[in-house]
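I am still learning, so would you mind making up any protein sequence you like and the tokens describing how it folds?
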Amino acid sequence: MADIIQLLPDHVANQIAAGEVVQRPASVVKELLENAIDAEATLIKLIIKDSGKTLVQVIDNGKGMSTTDARLSFERHATSKIRTADDLFQLHTKGFRGEALASIAAIAHVELKTKQENDEVGNVIIIEGSTMVSQDVVVTPKGTSIAVKNLFFNIPARRNFLKSNTVELRHVMDEFHRVALAHPNISFSFYNNGSDVFNLPPGNYRQRIVNIFGNKTNEKLVPVEENTEVLKISGFVGKPEFSKKTRGEQYFFVNDRFIKSGYLNHAISSAFDGLLKNGVHPSYFLYLTVNPQTIDINIHPTKTEIKFDDEHTLYALLRSAVKHSLGQFNIAPVLDFEHDPNLDTPYSYKNIHANTPVIEVDRSFNPFKESGNSSRQHTTTFKNETSNHWDSLYVGLESKGNSFKQEFSEVHFESEESSESIFDNDTQVEQAQTTYQLHNKYIVSTIKSGMLILDQYRAHQRILYEDFLKCMTIKEGMSQQLLFPLELHFSTKDIEIIKQLKDDLEHAGFVFSNIHNEGVEIIGLPVNIPEKEVISILEYLISDVENEVPDSNFSATDLLAKSMAKSLAIKRGQSLKKDEQEHLVNSLFACKEPNVSPNNKATFITMSVDELDKKFI
């Protein structure tokens, strides 16, 4: 039998490896930014086009590479970071496997320009699909510039799996945030399709967080500091009242490397027990420093998952540190049983001195001056005078009452003209009893074959969804003008998503007067949307985009209609009147697709009389 096992060609092996390292444009951004940091750059510039599908370019002022190093950097497992296997447990740099550039070059067009400080000229290398096209000298400033163009040009199937530009841009910005937050001492700038998105000067951790998420973030942060032999913790957590419905602002950094850890995230959530509402998540930016020998960061190609030697100790230290900070800054409620609040001086009286009351005594007063008989006579006279005085209050009251009766007898009340109903009384009584609300969640209605049980939340979602979709499709959404502009604050990442969806929001009835880097100003809202629900609607919309709700057939109009319907629908637990229940049932069955909600979940079920009879057998 002939041999069937053979070695893969290098370019095929590189493409397979690229599937692990490079999943989307954000993966390229992460690898290139980390290489720039390893090159000791103090100024890093990121340029992308079409959310990274067309171009991802990173320019830094780092050490640069020699001619030989520039060529070897595109070979598989070529690295300057490790020499032996033991070096994997003493890592202080970002990239160490030597896979990134080789994997990227296998699936894109790559142009590398680099120059060391003491060299007169630099080198330029052009690679297309692992094939070296050219290598030459070039005049370029100190540092490295690497441009990755036409990602997945030779693997169309992988390119088709990419999401919409809005979703891919969100992933790119996430990776940029993670790297920029981990290194506040480095200056970063970010350009998307020629526009300036971020320009982050060097500073401390707090300044970097505020520069990325907006000036309003500064008042939301509570510092966390703890220093032990096992773990050093520094950073910030968000105040409970500023918690969000999404997990966007949750960052763990271990030895200046962003990681994901559901176990450590649970430690933070447990520290906030009793302080958060259901369905919201706390924000945190925590920097952990541990001994490199106690962690293994080589368990995942993207290096975002880390294995700790003693996770239980880290859990306990992290939970107690966050809980201590919340209590220290009076965020968490504290009970002091020895303190008497009645002894506290109000703030308004803090600097006011109390006046000593003046006591005056009438020394000539004598209650026994008159005899007992005269006092009794005097008392009797007083009572008579008092009774006469009260009797005078009723003089003429009877005549006034008659006049009042006469006046009110001539008053006529306006009322609608009564018209005969097309149904007889028996039918109306029967209709009034056709619906019943069960546990403020479901509406039970009778039908010919049995009964219908309707989920009021999903049913109202379907009704609102079709109404909003109709308005946005014909681009004639009705808008109501606000008396005062509504100012809402968002992070820069959320603002970019709102910009992408601005046209569809305007078709729905929103009117924007200004969209800037830290928020939006709204002067008009769709009809029947209360002002207090606007922030919830936009947060739901941003959350759906961040959670990759849209697929390859993504429609911003459809997503917006779903988000608005989800925000404004009648919630479970809300009591409805009889006429509201009937209106909900009738409106649902007037929809084009009454059977399912906008998320393709059943809106109602039916149960026949035969099925009920079987329950009693």
